[in-house]
Design goal:
The structure holds two protein chains of two kinds. The longest helix of chain A has 38 residues, at 4-41. Chain A has 13 helices and no strands. In chain A, helix 2 runs parallel beside helix 9 (244-269), helix 4 runs antiparallel to helix 5 and helix 4 runs parallel beside helix 13. In chain A, 79% of the residues lie in helices and 0% in strands. Chain B is α/β, with parallel strands linked by helices. Helix content of chain B is 47%, strand content 11%. Chain B has helices at residues 3-22, 36-39, 42-50, 79-92, 109-136, 141-162, and strands spanning 62-67, 74-78, 187-191, 197-202. Chain B is elongated, with a radius of gyration of 24 Å. The chains are: A mainly alpha, B alpha/beta. At the A-B interface, helix 4 and helix 5 of A face helix 1 and helix 5 of B.
């Protein structure tokens, strides 16, 4: 028999849950709207400011999250982790080779496109392999033929328009963080799931509003090398018919949400990801883990984040180049952990 | 049929249709076919395939269009035509300076072949999956109707997108001139993004 005090407690708990979810929606939407207005008005300035403030820091948080999720013993998941790490290092290595080789006479436009198509194809093959490894012991049957068809279709598109697919990765990357958060909320904060879906539905709407407001804006000035790089990163060269104001604003808006998710929302929904709770990291707190190595990596990560701030302050443009070359590591590292959560 | 199946099929079809529209595969030009010798060097073959040097003795394609945002009329000349002028000029000691800018086609031949092969495989595996999934659950009327509708829209838009303009708009004759002649200022530009000479006109107020 349920007592009246139990009912009161349950009602109170529901009310608290309702209030926290509602508060979350209002906060998310409020911040997203303010960000969209600010970024839409000053895209170049917003790009410089957000990367200066959050780029290195969010990488540190991501690293903290991934290390926290790494099991002490890989067990039956060993092939998955080997393929994951091998893929991250190989793809990042190839990317750096191309990046450092840019400007070399060997790399004509045709070679660039061929390299981009190969790299994108390898990326898709790696993702399919990871998904297969993840689901191979699953009791639920999966439509593998369909997955293969979709993977082949996407790969074919990367061969038809390799540079556009590489640009697509720039814009898809911020959504990976939103997907992470969705999976994390499913695990640790289910009462926020509907609220979060509502927030996610608002993102395309805000992008649409940005597009409507900015599509007729003149292109952003490219009179300095930094401004040109920012516009080019957002695809102004590949999509000349779209206002670079809109392209940069869209990219910066998505990146800002990406930073917001990693820096604030994921630690908020998963207490194991709260940065200062190092004892929640199995590899660090457990004697069977790798405490010295992990501590060393955290220290190096902290130095790298501080060095980035100093670098941005001294020579923003060069540091930005170095950062985005190195950032491919975190772009790739996100995929295996996301697939592991599916 | 499950809603997820319909959704995935819709995505697949949309993907194929988008690809068909966005990357209309170019018909190989007879004068651009690489010979056996040039096949050894794929780069050279690709360049030759992609951008045949036009002979200026042959008529060049020309179009006139209206641009709402243009203030001054623009004559846009493709760099391939400039190169043809240079080739002719080289023989006759022309004033055209040589240029290092290469026109790169949107798709290289390798990209077309590999992309096409992969897309064919995707269609085969997608079809296999569709045939096999039909055995498990019978498709509902709504699912089949939406698929037929989607295919219909796809076909209609494909036909519409590939249909040419009316015959009057495909020829340059005196019909386009109200008084038999016209003149004015024109800004001359060169471009890598066009394959024919274009005269861009501002819309009259």
């Amino acid at each position: 028999m349920v007592s009246s005090s139990d009912t009161v407690h349950r009602d109170a708990a529901t009310s608290v849950r309702f209030n926290s979810a509602t508060l979350f929606v209002f906060m998310f939407l409020g911040i997203a709207v303010v960000a969209a207005i600010t970024i839409g008005s000053f895209p170049l300035q917003a790009s410089i400011a957000t990367i200066f403030l959050f780029a290195g820091l969010h990488n540190w948080f991501e690293f903290r999250y991934f290390v926290g999720r790494m099991p002490l013993r890989w067990g039956r998941s060993a092939p998955f982790y080997f393929v994951a790490m091998g893929g991250v290092l190989t793809l990042a290595g190839l990317y750096w080779v191309a990046y450092l080789g840019s400007g070399n006479w060997l790399w004509s436009s045709a070679e660039w496109r061929l390299f981009a198509a190969l790299w994108n194809s390898l990326l898709i093959a790696w993702l399919v392999s990871l998904y297969c490894l993840r689901k191979r012991n699953s009791k639920v049957s999966h439509p593998w033929l369909l997955y293969l068809a979709i993977a082949l279709l996407i790969t074919s598109l990367t061969w038809f328009a390799p540079l556009y697919c590489s640009l697509a990765l720039v814009f898809i990357h911020p959504f990976i963080a939103m997907w992470f958060l969705e999976r994390q909320i499913r695990r640790t904060k289910k009462e926020w799931l509907r609220a979060y879906h509502l927030c996610m539905a608002a993102v395309p709407l805000l992008l649409l509003v940005l597009a409507l407001c900015l599509s007729r804006q003149p292109n952003l000035p490219e009179d300095s090398q930094l401004f040109w790089k920012i516009s080019q990163h957002a695809g102004s060269e590949l999509l000349p018919s779209i206002s670079s104001h809109l392209l940069v604003a869209t990219h910066v808006f998505l990146e800002t949400i990406h930073y917001f998710v990693w820096l604030l929302l994921i630690p908020l929904v998963d207490r194991r990801s709260i940065p200062w709770r190092f004892n929640e990291i199995p590899l660090l707190s457990n004697a069977r883990g790798l405490p010295k190595l992990v501590a060393c990596m955290f220290t190096l990560g902290t130095f790298a984040a501080v060095a980035l701030w100093i670098g941005f302050a001294v020579d923003y443009s060069t540091t930005r180049d170095i950062y985005f070359a190195a950032a491919i590591l975190h772009v790739l590292a996100e995929f295996p952990f996301l697939i592991k959560m599916l | 049929m499950k809603p997820s199946t319909v959704l995935v099929l819709t995505l697949l079809l949309t993907g194929f249709e988008s690809a068909a529209f966005a990357f209309d595969i170019p018909v190989p030009r007879p004068n651009a076919k690489p010979d056996a010798k040039s096949d050894v060097n794929e780069n050279a073959a690709e360049k030759k395939y992609a951008e045949p040097i036009k002979k200026l003795a042959e008529p060049q394609r020309f179009s006139i269009r209206i641009d709402e945002e243009t203030k001054v009329a623009k004559l846009v000349i493709p760099n391939s035509v400039i190169r043809a002028l240079q080739a002719d000029g080289a023989k006759s000691g022309s004033i055209f300076p040589s240029t290092q800018n290469d026109i790169q086609p949107l798709m290289t031949r390798t990209g077309t072949v590999v992309g096409g092969a992969l897309m064919t495989l995707a269609a085969i595996f997608g079809g296999l999956w569709f045939v096999r999934s039909r055995k498990a659950t019978a498709p509902t009327f709504a699912a089949m109707a939406s698929l037929v509708l989607l295919c219909g829209i796809g076909t209609a838009s494909f036909v519409y997108a590939n249909a040419g303009p009316p015959p009057e708009a495909r020829s340059l004759t005196s019909k386009i001139l109200k008084y038999g002649f016209t003149y004015g200022e024109v800004q001359v530009e060169t471009t890598n993004d066009a394959d024919q000479i274009v005269l861009v006109l501002p819309r009259a107020k």
